[in-house]
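lol forgot to send this yesterday, sorry. struct tokens for the thing we talked abt
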């Protein structure tokens, strides 16, 4: 297993190119199941989760190549199944459920089990498919879904769910009639998926608003598209500039996808300038402590909560960080404390009292974004920080140590 060894205390300066978004690429790859033929995706990041989705699709008979462009050929789907081994390593595997039932009338998908950041059930995905006429049964840990042809339905989500919205939107494209999704997720990744589905011939209106309307068509055809930039990767590098007292220029971003994060970083005292696809960010001395509450897009994303908390550990006062999406997304708190952070938990709120400096220590990554927060802590800490279990990080950050080294960080990947 690899670990990252970081000698902290170096302000980062320079340019970082932002990669394609993992959470946009994964649903696009699943959507390839909806149309036979060759789909082409540009700007797909090289990440472990992307590889897992490739393996999942390959097991079903959809071969893919990932060179400069990712090409997926979904002409010969043999077994419409997502096995436990893959679903347990990547919950987004559940994104194949909607496309498989809609296109092949049958899917067998393992139920995801517990998760490091919360219970994360898929009841809303299943309830929606049932409303569209699918028969859903649970058998030996698997969801078995069947439908001769799904039919349009009016579905109101009890709670905003990103992959739930994506799954039902994909399923509705081939359903008979019109489906209305109310209280739908408005994340940029949902809009990017809707754009691709429309390029395939789907009829979707309202993506990016709380009400998405999909009028089913008989058939879709493969197309090509470019994956949108990873807003969470970009946000993580902005926090890296802040926590190290440096300045970074991020290229290939979508500042409009990061407004809530940029707003909070400005409140925290950073200077941020966005123009076109570039964001320039610089720290200005001590960080102000500010409060943050995670909410669905366009509010502050849960996927930036851990990284923002790392920044707040060096704040000038007290910051309250409330996690409203997942009930257990504070695993990084104990590890940040090992770096000298002063954080108390009060239910779903973390009370972060700023300290003057962090000090390097061995820490353990527990999930993807928690890992990123530990890397940020390590970059700022005096002395050496060793981050173990970085396979979590490799799920979602492309070449993180290379990108950080290129802007001055003393960071190395070491085999344990
Ligand atoms: N929920 C239910 N029932 C459902 C679905 C969701 O109760 O059927 C609950 C969840 O337990 C959670 C809330 O609804 O409390 C929102 O979860 P959501 O379904 O939106 O999460 P997700 O779709 O499983 C995606 C991202 C996550 C990101 C969340 C929230 C992908 C592949 N994953 O997950 O990304 O945190 O939305 O924005 O898009 C990450 O990249 O590190 C990551 C975890």
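and heres what i got for the seq, position by position
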């Amino acid at each position: 297993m690899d670990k990252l060894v970081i000698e902290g205390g170096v302000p980062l300066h320079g340019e970082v190119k932002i990669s394609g978004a993992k959470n946009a690429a994964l649903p696009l790859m699943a959507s390839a199941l909806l149309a036979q033929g060759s789909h082409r995706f540009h700007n797909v990041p090289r990440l472990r989760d992307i590889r897992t989705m490739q393996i999942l699709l390959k097991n079903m008979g959809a071969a893919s190549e990932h060179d400069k462009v990712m090409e997926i050929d979904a002409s010969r789907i043999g077994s419409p199944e997502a096995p436990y081994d893959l679903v347990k390593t990547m919950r987004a595997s559940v994104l194949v459920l909607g496309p498989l039932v809609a296109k092949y009338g049958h899917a067998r998908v393992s139920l995801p089990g517990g998760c490091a950041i919360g219970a994360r059930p898929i009841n809303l995905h299943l309830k929606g498919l049932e409303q569209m006429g699918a028969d859903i049964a649970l058998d030996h840990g698997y969801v078995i879904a069947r439908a001769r042809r799904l039919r349009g339905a009016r579905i109101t989500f009890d709670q905003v769910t990103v992959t739930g919205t994506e799954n039902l939107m994909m399923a509705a494209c081939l359903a008979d009639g019109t489906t209305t999704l109310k209280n739908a997720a408005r994340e940029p990744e949902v809009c990017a998926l809707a754009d691709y589905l429309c390029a395939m011939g789907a009829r979707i209106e309202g993506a990016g608003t709380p009400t998405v309307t999909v009028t089913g068509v008989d058939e879709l055809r493969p197309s090509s598209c470019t994956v949108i930039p990873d807003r969470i990767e970009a946000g993580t590098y902005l926090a890296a500039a802040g926590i190290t007292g440096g300045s970074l220029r991020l290229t290939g971003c979508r500042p409009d996808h990061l407004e809530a994060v940029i707003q909070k970083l400005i409140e925290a005292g950073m200077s941020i300038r966005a123009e076109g696809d570039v964001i320039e960010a610089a720290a200005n001395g001590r960080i102000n402590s500010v409060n943050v509450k995670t909410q669905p897009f366009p509010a502050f994303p849960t996927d930036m909560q851990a990284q923002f908390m790392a920044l707040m550990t060096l704040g000038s006062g007290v910051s309250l960080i409330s996690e409203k999406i997942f009930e257990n997304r504070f695993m990084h708190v104990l590890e940040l404390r090992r770096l000298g952070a002063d954080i108390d938990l009060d239910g779903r709120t973390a009370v972060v009292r700023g300290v003057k400096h962090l000090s390097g220590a061995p820490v353990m990554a527990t999930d993807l974004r928690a890992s990123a927060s530990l890397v940020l802590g390590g970059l700022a800490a005096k002395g050496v920080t060793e981050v173990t279990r970085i396979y979590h990080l490799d799920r979602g950050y492309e070449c993180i140590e290379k990108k950080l080294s290129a802007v001055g960080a003393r960071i190395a990947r070491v085999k344990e």
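The two ends are 6 Å apart (CA to CA). anyway ping me if u want another try
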